[in-house]
Design goal:
homodimer; 163 residues; eight-stranded antiparallel β-sheet; 26% helix
Chain lengths: 163, 163
């Protein structure tokens, strides 16, 4: 048997810069243009955002003022998510609102930035700002980390396939 | 000529309890049940919310998780507003999000409470919570006070008519 060198799984770095924020940092082994497409093309988003679950993209108007609405069909149930785009700067930055049907009217502002690392990789940073510390903590303790890693692992696989 | 005693116009009391909030207090000369109806029946809302301008109520699902969307047709242009209900407690309290198309993705949480003053009048308190101090100040300096007084004066007239 050959000795296999298995790389450790890539993890996201999750921090809380202020009492109302969650900051997520993650590097993807793909050029920025490809990562941008995976975040903004509904056909591609449908392949990773739902972590392997069926994802119905009811609405995804990637432009300032546009709305988005995704419905995830998981074994545990159906979950709707929605929001609206505040800013879309191609290849660089998307700012949108994020709301889960299970807690309607609780809205976070998500600012996603993409950084070209110059070696074919891309670093993304996603900062979520909540109205209150309690809402931020509610999100932190919702199992978001596990869901996030599953989504990003699916995104890793998609980006490799797109190359 | 008879001497006319003209009452001063009723004004709202607008304060800023924290750096991210605006608090509005106003008394209406009508029982709480009637004020509640004026805030929750689309046919009635259409008669005062737009300050005399045509108001198209595209969506108004007054229940937890429901959406609302109003479009005001003023001489200066067409303005859309929308949001989602977080809480609806009949006669007492409505919590919903508020967003103006002109600044998409900038979302305030509005908490409206109705207090029965016991003498046929009703006090409403509406607290808006913004994500940042800058967004709060943007709203304060948007001419909101004038618009608010126009809306509430129209509501005074509607409440008198409903009696």
């Amino acid at each position: 048997m050959s000795k296999q060198v298995k790389e450790p799984p890539v993890r996201s770095k999750i921090t809380t810069p202020t009492e109302r924020e969650i900051r997520i940092e993650r590097v993807f082994d793909a050029p920025r243009e490809r990562v941008w497409r995976a975040f903004t093309d509904p056909k591609l988003v449908a392949q990773w955002w739902g972590r392997g679950n069926k994802l119905v993209i009811e609405r995804m108007e990637v432009e300032r003022g546009g709305h988005w609405r995704f419905v995830e069909h998981s074994p545990e149930g159906v979950h709707g998510f929605e929001g609206r785009y505040r800013e879309v700067t191609p290849m660089e930055r998307i700012v949108h609102t994020f709301e889960w049907d299970g807690m309607p009217g609780h809205v976070a502002i998500e600012t996603l930035t993409l950084e070209d690392l110059g070696d074919g990789r891309t670093r993304i940073v996603n900062v979520s700002l909540f109205h209150t510390n309690e809402e931020r903590d509610g999100m932190l303790h919702s199992g978001m980390e596990q869901g996030l890693e599953q989504s990003y692992a699916a995104l890793d696989r998609l980006l490799a396939k797109l190359s």
